[in-house]
UniProtKB/TrEMBL annotation:
InterPro entries: FAD/NAD-bd_sf, FAD/NAD-binding_dom, Glutamate_Synthase. It comes from the Eukaryota. Transmembrane segments: none annotated. This is Glutamate synthase subunit beta domain protein. One of its GO terms (molecular function) is oxidoreductase activity. Gene3D superfamilies: FAD/NAD(P)-binding domain. Residues 85-188 form the FAD/NAD(P)-binding domain. It comes from Teladorsagia circumcincta.
């Protein structure tokens, strides 16, 4: 029977579904950016990733259950409202939000502008800040004593996946930083190749670029 709000990261589906299934009275998703267009804009041509309005499974399920889309665009949070509960602990009770719009300045850079007389408060018992990748979890890194780069990613030699600790390998976002899933797949395969080579002394797993084939030799002829 509580009010749940998520800030940013509009594509975070599990939060929407599970909050509602857990009995939240209201589930809202605030996004500071404007609502995307239904189709590509001229400044977003192919082969760039299409920045368009999408309805994912979480949005669709919430619409079926509540009759509306949980997303609200062009919203900026100005303050968290708090109060002490019965145990004397300060907890979130609401958010102070304002509607915003984006305009380009004289240099062509986007500038955030608050709309006049649009500031209001919303009830909130749980606020989740889903704002993207901020580095790998530090627990394992600290427990194993792994070295990290300035961005907190696990440090490995160039084009290698072994860490500075023997028998510990890293791949994907924890090594290269936030990136596309295709990079995670690629690095997972190459890390497996290096692990295989480490354990067996050699490997037949495909290296970067795939498998290199050669014409077979038969009875002394190629």
């Amino acid at each position: 029977d509580q009010f749940a709000v998520r800030l940013n990261s509009i594509d975070c589906q599990p939060f929407l579904i599970h909050s509602h299934k857990q009995g939240a009275k209201s589930v809202q998703a605030f996004e500071i950016l404007p609502k995307p267009a239904e189709g590509r804009k001229p400044e977003n041509p192919w082969p760039e990733w299409p920045v368009i309005f999408r309805i994912d499974y979480g949005h669709e399920e919430m619409h079926v259950k509540t009759g509306k889309d949980p997303r609200t665009y062009s919203i900026s949070t100005k303050a968290f409202l708090t109060a002490e509960n019965a145990a004397g602990i300060k907890v979130v009770t609401g958010l102070e939000i304002v509607e915003v719009e984006w305009e380009k300045d004289e240099k062509g850079a986007w500038k955030l502008i608050e709309k006049l007389d649009t500031t209001r408060t919303v009830e909130c018992d749980l606020c989740i800040l889903a704002m993207g990748f901020v580095g790998p979890e530090k627990t394992v890194i600290e427990q194993l004593g792994l070295k990290s780069d300035p961005r907190s990613n696990i440090l490995t030699p160039k084009d290698k996946y072994n860490s500075d600790v023997a028998k510990v390998f890293a791949a994907g976002d924890c090594r290269r930083g936030q990136s596309l899933v295709v990079w995670a797949i690629h690095e997972g395969r190459q890390a497996a190749r290096q692990v295989d080579e480490y354990l067996m002394g050699k490997t037949t797993l495909a290296g970067p670029g795939g498998i290199v084939t050669a014409r077979m030799t038969h009875k002394g002829h190629r």
